[in-house]
From TrEMBL:
Protein name as it appears in the record: Periplasmic chaperone for outer membrane proteins Skp
Pfam families associated with the record: OmpH (PF03938)
Keywords linked to the UniProt accession: Signal
Superkingdom of source: Bacteria
Gene3D superfamilies for this protein: Skp domain
Gene Ontology molecular functions: unfolded protein binding
Record's compositionally biased regions (Low complexity): 202-228
Residues spanning the signal sequence: 1-24
The keyword Signal belongs to this UniProt entry's keyword annotation: yes
InterPro entries recorded: Chaperone_Skp, Skp_dom_sf
């Protein structure tokens, strides 16, 4: 009986070893026709994006300097208010002065929000530049993906975030970046006067279409024929 058990155990171990040996090479092979790509990384590593980012601090130096000056100004205005608030909160009569403390806190929050909004307005040209560069690259992205797929003989590409795990052999990101570098080696940094991002342009077009539809007079009702 012991001999039979030993033989059976040895046979099972051998079978398991053989099975593992047979499966391992198959698991290591990449399935042809499938690829994954990190769209964001393909764009931000492209030459057009990198060169634009490097040139923007020089082109928009005035805006960056003005935003920094405004931030410093807001910080100087906030510092005494915050210090007073912290002191009053720790005072023995703080519990009885909740209304005054709430008023101080509201003033601090309002000043912070106002300062943040002013800084954003100063940096609005910078934000438009970033959006303009991204839109130029995005217009070539689909073509870059298809060219990379053709060269790698890929029929379907998944976004990296849609996969639980993958082999690097499936990664098409660098191939897409290379195609972008060929299709758009550089992007225009400064948008034309009055330019708006695509989403805002589409929203404006939809609003104008809706307004035109409301302004159009209704068709007159058809006149009923008189009976004889």
């Amino acid at each position: 009986m012991k001999l039979l058990l030993k033989c059976t155990a040895a046979a099972l171990m051998a079978a398991g070893t053989l099975a593992s040996g047979a499966i391992a090479p198959v698991a290591a092979q990449a399935v042809s026709g499938i690829g994954i790509a990190d769209q964001r990384r393909a764009v931000v590593e492209s030459s057009a994006f990198v060169n634009a980012n490097n040139a923007r601090p020089t082109t928009y130096k005035a805006q960056y300097d003005a935003a920094q000056a405004k931030s410093n100004q807001i910080r100087q205005q906030l510092e005494p208010l915050v210090n007073k608030f912290n002191t009053d909160v720790q005072a023995p009569n703080a519990q009885a002065n909740q209304a005054a403390l709430q008023q101080q806190l509201g003033q601090i929050q309002q000043l912070r929000e106002q300062g943040s909004q002013e800084v954003q307005e100063i940096l609005q040209p910078v934000a438009l530049s970033e959006a303009y560069v991204l839109e130029q690259i995005s217009e070539k992205f689909d073509q870059a993906v298809r060219q990379a797929m053709t060269k790698r003989k890929i029929t379907i590409v998944f976004e990296t975030g849609a996969t639980l795990a993958h082999n690097d052999a499936y990664d098409l990101t660098k191939d897409i970046t290379a195609e972008l570098n060929t299709l758009i080696p550089s992007a225009q940094l400064v948008p034309p006067q009055g330019w708006l991002p695509r989403q805002q342009r589409e929203q404006q077009a939809a609003q104008q279409a809706a307004q035109q539809g409301q302004a159009r007079p209704a068709a007159p009702a058809a006149q009923q024929p008189e009976g004889r």
